[in-house]
Design goal:
By secondary structure, the protein is mainly α. It has 8 helices and no strands. It is globular, with a radius of gyration of 18 Å. The chain starts with 7 loop residues before the first helix and ends in a 5-residue tail after the last helix.
Amino acid sequence: MNMTMLSDKELINIYLNGSEKAFQELLSRHEEKIYTSIYMFVKNTEQAEDIFQEVFIKIIKTLRAGKYNHEGKFGQWAMRIAYNMCVDNFRKSKRRPQINPTEEFDIFEVLPLEEDNVETELIKDETFSKIRHLVDLLPPEQREVVILRHYAELSFKEIAQLTRVSINTALGRMRYALINMRKIVEEKNVVLN
């Protein structure tokens, strides 16, 4: 059976009937988006990997307990779990001293790209590093919307549901995030390309 042709719902049903391969396919479909989103929130490879594992343990437990319904999309549901775990992690970290790790993550390592020459790769690395820094400088609500929209690729409707605000609020936060990022670029004379 070719698992790649099946819907998420079909894969879940096959997994619940004992096929680990079905779950592996489900995981491979969604892991890149979920991991990247988690990393953009926590900015730490070890923490991101830990939270990512916790997310999929919770998903497995929920599926096995028969508590998942197929009303929503699996990807959105999984992203909501990841988001909630990131928020929980953030709350816990506020209670203990914060240690800022060095940046080890490169978005290009998880995105499929055609081969580029070394110079192009260096320019991309530098550009994405600058963009990540700009996103980090945003207020938390604006940073959250930028990450969910551009790294998790969620729609504004999905972002509004996930963050429990109106669509207009989510759109407004994105608008202000872009205004703030432009202001920072102009004030600090940041060159992005």
